[in-house]
Design goal:
Number of helices of chain A: 0
Structural class of chain A: mainly beta
Largest interface: A-B, 31 and 29 residues
Radius of gyration of chain A: 13 Å
Largest sheet of chain B: 6 strands, mixed
Structural class of chain B: mainly beta
Radius of gyration of chain B: 14 Å
Oligomer: heterodimer
Order of helices and strands of chain B: EEEEEEEEEEEE
Mean pLDDT of chain B: 90
Low-confidence stretches of chain B: none
Number of strands of chain A: 11
Number of strands of chain B: 12
Distance between the termini of chain A: 31 Å
Chain lengths: ~120, ~120
């Protein structure tokens, strides 16, 4: 069982829809991440939040809008997506932003499989 | 720049056979290295990590990995593969210093297991 919970597991949306992906962790971690993973590729970092503030934005298009309402929750709001945005979206958390560089791992959720039609 | 190379895109082994998945890294300082496994449609599960000390690291599910600084390698091994080990395996290095940190992933190795 993963300690990072993502909902929904699957999402199909049209290009004009607005939807949100949700992520929750109760490990007391203060850094939370969104990754995008295309088929047969490694995960690609999109956003990082540290202490509920956006710390890293890897030049992600504005049709993806992250939100961190509190230290346990992370949302990704989707609007006017394109078919090429179809992918597995992974949420992850770590103790803090520098944890990975100190050898502490990221904890991943099971992802949301997004299909844009 | 930091990078991780997994030379094998796809490996097939027979059930019960031994396994070695290769990983080479490029990193200026002492690296922090991780192996993750991903079953189809699932998230990434940490198998093991290396950050200091003993260069032979034991992980979950019977996996181990050996850090070899002279070869810039961190190969994953398992003495006897089970059919449930079929999955995608990612090697990663913990990059960045100070207040920032991120995982740099290799491109992954897909493991298939023959009965």
């Amino acid at each position: 069982d993963t300690e990072v919970t993502q909902t929904p597991k699957h999402l199909v949306m049209g290009m004009t829809n607005k939807k949100s992906l949700k992520c929750e962790q109760h490990m007391g971690h203060r850094a939370m991440y969104w990754y995008k993973q295309k088929a047969k590729k490694p995960p690609e970092l999109m956003f990082v939040y540290s202490y509920e503030k956006l710390s890293i934005n890897e030049s992600v298009p504005s049709r993806f809008s992250p939100e961190c309402p509190n230290s346990s929750l992370l949302n990704l709001h989707l609007h006017a997506l394109q078919p090429e945005d179809s992918a597995l979206y992974l949420c992850a958390s770590s103790q803090d932003l520098g944890a990975v560089a100190r050898g502490s791992p990221l904890h991943f959720g099971n992802g949301t499989r997004l299909t844009v039609t | 720049a930091q990078s991780v190379t997994q030379p094998d895109i796809h490996i097939t082994v027979s059930e019960g056979a031994s396994l070695e998945l290769r990983c080479n890294y490029s990193y200026g300082a002492t690296p922090y290295l991780f192996w993750y496994v991903q079953s189809p449609g699932q998230g990434l599960q940490l198998l093991l990590k290396y950050f200091s000390g003993d260069t032979l690291v034991q992980g979950i599910k019977g996996f181990e990995a050996e850090f070899k600084r002279s070869q810039s390698s961190f190969n994953l091994r398992k003495p006897s593969v089970h059919w449930s080990d079929a999955a995608e395996y990612f090697c990663a290095v913990g990059a960045g210093g100070g207040s920032q940190g991120n995982l740099i992933f290799g491109k992954g190795t897909k493991l298939s297991v023959k009965p």
